[in-house]
Amino acid sequence: MTTPCHFDSAQLTFAGSPIDQARCLLRTVKPHGNVNEAQADLPPVLSGLLADPAALGVTKAQLRSFLHEQGIDESTVGGSVMDRICHANSDDSNAPLARYFVIHDTSFKLDPGEDFDPAFINTAAWSGNKLSGLADGKTHIYITRLGETLTDRTYGTPWRATRFEKPSTRFRGLFLHHELVQPRMGPGGQDFLSPDPGFTPAQYARLALQYVIAGVRRGAWMVPVFHCVLDLGVGDHDDPQHFDLAAWDAALQTTLANVRAEQPEPAVAAVAAGMAAPPPGGITTRARRTKPRTGGRAKAAKKARPRKKAAASAKRTSAKTSVKKASAKKKSAKKKSVAKSRKTKTAAEKRSRKPAKKAKAAKKAKSAKKSVKKRSRKGGARAR
Q: For the whole model, what pTM was predicted?
């Protein structure tokens, strides 16, 4: 069996310098949990960072400015970059800050009839890339094959996610965990088959950003670790499969160059330097998005905006028209009701006036008759 890396439980650290530790903890992981006995060859950028971990060359202000510029909400990448990361021993302030950056893969087994076709597993069509479907309480950060992230637990929360950590709560908070979404296949209940390449460029880019965020919040670069190598002798895991250290190193170089080129706005720099408290709701100098910018997706989203606005406008117009029609219908009904009421009232009044007219006519006729008789008597008198 491959030799596990020596760990000093009293000092809560693996043996050797950060570079020595990384060379042991990043040994190649093969199917069925087999690990190379030979030490890993560290790529140049990672090797340079671990040679002097305290020399970050990145400020919190630059990091926050970069995240805002890219439209990345800090809540999706482990919490506020102004906060520290957790301490070991269940966040005991007397224990060291988290030292190890653990890389896992989710090992999601594909359904019957599905395969490793990139046009399927690297798109939103595959359920494994849906953030809403990822299990709770398993890690600190999830990274889908689309490069989208989900904070399962913030970097300030001590959390255990390996067999190595289980024996003691002193180990809780010593490791930060990162689950890279990866599909698997295999006969029966097995899932030892994985795609090659194992991860997408978008995943390496976001993992590089998470490494920078964790280091800046810690104040020193962390030692990266493969889950399977950490669990040698105590677990039966085999992740991550087909992890390309060179591809991750290239992503690290690009990410560091972009973050270091940031010229943070005065308000951001003041908060990062502790000279000012962040305003309620945080600094909102630029619009935020929760998903990473990718050329095709960003262009598609940009093209979709006018259509969405037009649809929303049409919907509002339709709603207003419906309201107007309903209002007009209501007014019309009210007018008809009033007209009907008036008609009924007029008919009633006419009926009540008929007897009065008859009485008046009769009285008038009677009066006329009396007048005729009176004239007749007067005429007779004259004749006599």
A: 0.72
